[in-house]
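Hey, sorry to bother you again with one of my protein questions. A protein chain has come my way and I'm curious about its shape. It would help a lot if you went through both lines with me. I owe you a coffee for this, so here goes:
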Amino acid sequence: MIISLFFAYLIGSVPFGKIITKILINKDITQTGSGNIGATNVYRSVSKKAGILVLILDAIKPIIALTMIQYLNPNLFNEYKFIFFLVSIIGHIFPIWLKFKGGKGVACFFGGNLLLMPIPTIFSMIIWLLVVKFSKLSSFGALLSIFVLTSYELIFIYGTLNKGIILLLFVLIFLKHSSNIKRLIKGQENKIDL
């Protein structure tokens, strides 16, 4: 169990935004744009293709962690999959390699949920795309779609612990977006073109 948790954390903590930016333009993404290692900052600061690549790679991290644990120990996975999901996102948000200063968890949240609850996750991702397409506000689209998906999960997933984990992830992601929320309220949030 402990080894699996450590593995999930390490996979989640791989800073793809920093790695891709360094490879492509030889810059430190933590010193560029907003300073965040996530896909949106890479999208704005490096290129659209780089941002999309980081988005995909970040989304895949919890999928890799969960799939490997499921393969190695199906019983452990079935009982504790939401805990492993949580730990992989904690790895992304608080990576040991970057002094625990990581991304905001949106791509990882959608990625892990694609494995755990694919249909409602795809629906929520469509909401995100539509909102961003028409409002050009990535953070607003992300927060709205995560709210929709979390609400669905709190109603339909089984187990008090699993519901608690999803709620904790929701709160954590919203807290990581506190500066975005303040700018949204003031009408000063940075816009993005898809």
